[in-house]
Amino acid sequence: MALIVQKYGGSSVADPDRIANVANRVVKGWRDGNRMVVVLSAMAGETDRLINLARELAEDPDPRELDVLLATGEQVTVSLFSMFLRAQGVPATSLLSHQARIYTDRSYGRARIIGIDTARIREELKKNRVVTVAGFQGVDEVGNITTLGRGGSDTTAVAIAASLKADLCEIYTDVEGVFTTDPRIHPKARKLERIAYDEMLEMASLGAKILEIRSVGFAKRYNVPLAVRSSFTDAPGTLVTAEDEEMETIPVSGVAFSRNDARVTITRVPDRPGIAVRLFKPVAQANIVVDMIIQNTSIDGFTDLTFTVPKGDLKKTLELLGPVAREIGAQQVLGENNIAKVSIVGVGMKNNSGIAARMFEALAAANINIMMISTSEIKISCVIEDKYGELAVRLLHDAFGLENPPQKAPLQG
Ligand code: ADP
Ligand code: ASP
Ligand code: MG
């Protein structure tokens, strides 16, 4: 008998037929004698619909009230799901975040889980009930409803699995697992049997929305056995796990792609100590996450500074930096929205040379200009013009031969 946490994403609970279909999977697990906790997303499109509804009444909706609204999407699915199970004679109880005691901080719209008091979930499991938990939502210390950020139900599921020390956490979605790249962008994308936590973290942070990044962070920290599977087939899916030696022989395991960033350039910045902090402190104080930063070598004591921020924060960043740029005597602040970021990821990159050159070569062959580059031990990202984004994904996927399963290195000795 195992304790299993399953999470079903929006497309898996998009309508009553699909709810019934995935519920049958849960029933099977339960009838086999497993204890089942089921975390659900809102029906596909519902969270977007609620956001649009809010914007019809308020251009910039109050974050607290917006979270109260957005949390309703998941309330609908957990109740429907449990209702269906009960109608089949399977005991089930739905729990909202305050009932499941998922405690977060008060950053509405991007709240962090601080802790989960699993007593109530355990109590329900002891009574042999299937427990359905509303994903994406939490509650702060005084009872305000919060949400975790888009895609946050993944994080709910993994955090619950970690707290319960579950035997397995399964994320059910509309594709058969984690692929070498988004299968909707490249038909040659190949499903991975396994992926290392660190690779998955990079892929998620670089735009692969198959798993929300914080869920992978939790899985890594608490060593949660995590599987990504399709709710429409019985295929085995992808295991997200600690890395092993075999993974380290493969230099590139995936290509990620994001359209979420915008570029900010400040020209003719005086090159002297203290300038960077003058520019970046107000941005940090506004809770804006700066990603790639490039500073050119200075000529005549002046330099250009370029960095990226989330697209949604571009306007705010420009507003904040205009006055600072004037004060420090920089020339101008420019914003650019039409960029995409393509990245190659692989834990084996640290043991292989020449990977960056191959990436640049593949882009150059298609005459794609690289505007910015950033690297870490296990990834290389290039910012390019938006219109080449998907093409670049396909080119890089082909250049590194990712459609073919890697050859296993022969055993030595
Ligand atoms: P859910 O609603 O189930 O949470 P999401 O839409 O959040 O599903 O995530 C699944 C989607 O992630 C897939 O439909 C696919 O288009 C996209 N995706 C992006 N990168 C990858 C990847 N490397 N492997 C698999 N899917 C990916
Ligand atoms: N319903 C939320 C969203 O659409 C959370 C989730 O699906 O994970 O972002
Ligand atoms: Mg998702």
Can you offer a commentary on this structure?
By secondary structure, this protein is of the alpha/beta class. The protein contains 13 helices and 20 strands. It has an 8-stranded mixed beta sheet, sandwiched between helices. A 4-stranded antiparallel beta sheet has the order 13-18-20-19, sandwiched between helices. Strand 19 (372-376) and strand 20 (379-385) form a beta hairpin. Helix 8 runs antiparallel to helix 9. The longest helix is centred in the N-terminal third of the chain and has 16 residues, at 16-31. It starts with a strand and ends in a 14-residue tail after the last helix. The mean pLDDT is 95. Residues 9-10, 41-42, 47, 73, 135-136, 150-153 line the site of aspartic acid (ASP). Magnesium ion binds at residues 9, 151, 154, 209.
